[in-house]
Amino acid sequence: MSHTSTRLSDFHRMVSGDIVALQYRVTEGISGAVIDLSAFTAIAIKVFALGADGRPTGAALITDALAADVTLVSGGTTGLFQQALALADTAGLAGSYWVQVKLTNASSQVRTCQPFILIIDADLITA
Questions:
Q1: 85 in a domain, yes or no?
Q2: How remote is the C-alpha of 41 from its chain's centroid?
Q3: For the chain, what is the HEC assignment?
Q4: Under a CB-based contact definition with an 8 Å cutoff, are residues 42 and 64 in contact?
Q5: What is the distance, to the nearest Å, from the Cα of residue 32 to the centroid of all Cα atoms in its chain?
């Protein structure tokens, strides 16, 4: 099994309770070349609260995987995948959250993406 740093966007922003499909493009960390995801058999996404030290803390608040709420865009050849978030996923969240993504191919080689921050703004319209 190998471990390679892979880069996603630095952060995403949304409003709590929104029903959205966040898109991520996976690229090589140094060259910025797009990674073809079509050979990957597993994509796991976990979202954690941030502690006072700016590091993830506690159990994952959101856990998604390929073939569930994660889908490849254009078959994955463009390096794009999306995570479908439902109202219940983020309704009670507001603040900055640590996101970790792992990709696994058919040979069980793992690529762990550089973590990024998901900012969830509190929904101010409640009625």
A1: yes
A2: 16
A3: CCCCEEECCCEEEEECCCCEEEEEECEECCCCCECCCCCEEEEEEEEEEECCCCCEEEEEEEEEEECCCEEEHHHHCCCEEEEEECHHHHCCCCEEEEEEEEEEECCCCEEEECCEEEEEECCCCCC
A4: no
A5: 18
Q: What is the CATH number of the domain that holds 50?
A: 2.60.40
Q: How many domains does the chain have?
A: 1
Task: Report the alpha-carbon distance of residue 115 to residue 85 in Å, rounded.
Answer: 18
pLDDT digits (tens, 9 = 90+) for 54-95: 899 999 999 999 988 999 999 999 999 999 999 999 999 999
Instruction: Measure the CA–CA gap between 79 and 72, rounded to whole angstroms.
Output: 8
pLDDT digits (tens, 9 = 90+) for 18-67: 999 998 889 887 888 899 999 999 999 999 999 999 899 999 999 999 98
Nearest to 125 by CA among 17, 12, 13, 2: 17
Position 96, amino acid? S
